[in-house]
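Input set for joint prediction.
Command: fold jointly, output tokens.
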Amino acid sequence: MLYHIVTYGCQMNVHESEKISFILEEMGYTFTDKREEADVIVFNTCAIREGAEERVFGNVGALKKLKKMRPSMIIAVCGCMTQKEEKAKLFKQKFPFVDVILGTFNLHKIGQYILEAKNKKVLELWQEGALDEEKGYNRTSGQNAWINIMQGCNNFCTYCIVPYVRGREKSRTVENILNEVKEVVKTGQYNKITLLGQNVNSYGKDLTPSVSFTQLLRLITSIEGDFKVGFMTSHPKDITDELIDEIAINDKILKEIHLPAQSGNNRILKLMNRKYTREHYLNIISKIKAKIPNVKITSDFIVGFPTETEDEFLDTMSLVEQAKYDGIFAFMFSPREGTVASKMEGQVPLEIKRQRVNKLLNLEKKIQKEANK
Ligand code: SAH
Ligand code: SF4
Ligand code: F3S
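tokens >
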């Protein structure tokens, strides 16, 4: 019995596919990289931008023929895209040959659903879920081990679908995280641990007693062993001096910070509900650079947010120039159904978004070239 997984989206999803893989291997399946010979194919989907969703529709649709030839094959679609009820229903309607549809909160039940699917179609979504600590992971990222420290997001940036498909912030307990780190270190197979959360800086605020992310880092790095710790993603509104100092002095913490700015213009930042200003952001960048020599800073940007003018976009260009990043991701704003920004007036035409994204990426290329000289 063979299985194949196609993963879209962020590191969190990559890590969740490691859990799906563990569950399937416990059921007796073996991985194949050829989807046409698989007995079970899982699509672990992403909803962050329209492009991501279109790719999923295209690739699932393309399996129709294969399923006709091999009706015993089971196709399952899970993750952020199908967590949205209207998308789950659309899948069912458009692709009646899909056997299992589930969301993010009931991912740990995928094995059971696949067994049930031998007799009937399964569509099950949960509106909320507890943190799942039971299952293991079939780690697939070489010498790097992903460790999830929290789930969900409370920030509701106005463009973003994540809080709707991943729920509110829930932190794992320190004990469970430390146990997982110890297990990973004990294998001797990993020299890097990357802690995952949508906003790692708000780790532990929901625990009693509360624990700060810096405290968690201290506890993790006090575990004996030859490994380094990285983390993503940090939110500029929550990053503390304490954390910056800890990164600076702690040999076991990687000197890499992904700190998405999204925009360099204060009016747009406010419309995005990011809760910091350009000045605050640049101030953090200066602090980080002053305290951590050779630090690598990277960022994400969204261009063409509703009502963004050319001048406001130029503020993003100048922020990129000032921050001197080690790399950036730039995205065209993509309206996500159900978010505040998707209903805003003043949507920016695609052609302008395209121009802006190219300008921003070209600027970053130029900056990198100069830095390399
Ligand atoms: N939790 C992280 C990352 C979230 S998603 C954070 O807060 O930074 C990764 C990136 O996708 C975001 O940083 C943002 O730049 C981009 N993104 C999110 N929603 C988007 C949308 N509707 N359109 C375009 N880009 C988007
Ligand atoms: Fe989305 Fe904002 Fe949460 Fe990041 S912090 S996941 S961009 S809502
Ligand atoms: Fe990640 Fe995409 Fe979901 S970026 S959290 S897989 S919407």
